[in-house]
Amino acid sequence: MENTFPKCLSCDEGVLIPLSDYGREGASIMYKAWVCTNPECGFHMRIDNGEVSRGKEIKLSQK
What is each CA distance from 45 to 7, 29, 42, 53, in whole angstroms? Predict the structure, then answer.
């Protein structure tokens, strides 16, 4: 089965790809964030503690 990802509606050039992470207890969190593959776009969405945030500016984490 081939994976197809949604087109980025922000730039209409890239596609949104899912990223996963690990929770505080070490459990895997599938699809915690989605990011655009177009580096000039920078659109992203993520879930933190049940809240969805989105934006166009990608920042480096202090962690």
Answer: 14, 14, 10, 6
